[in-house]
Amino acid sequence: VPISEKKHNSLDGLKYNERFEFLNVFSMEMELAKSLRKGLPYPILKIIEYLSVDRAGFVWGRQYRLTGHYTIYLLW
Asked: What's the confidence (pLDDT) of residue 37?
């Protein structure tokens, strides 16, 4: 009688497909608040927080947004 053990992969249940609208600073902060209410995992929240902070020298979100706008204009 062959006995096989079924391996349990702990990452099977972690599949997220989230979309966030980063049109301006205010929408980024609203997306962060909405994600906190939804209870999304910490790594996703950390990325949204990183991109939405636009004070005290952290302007990554603004630079990414501007880069996206210029890219759209150049490709169009």
From this structure: 92
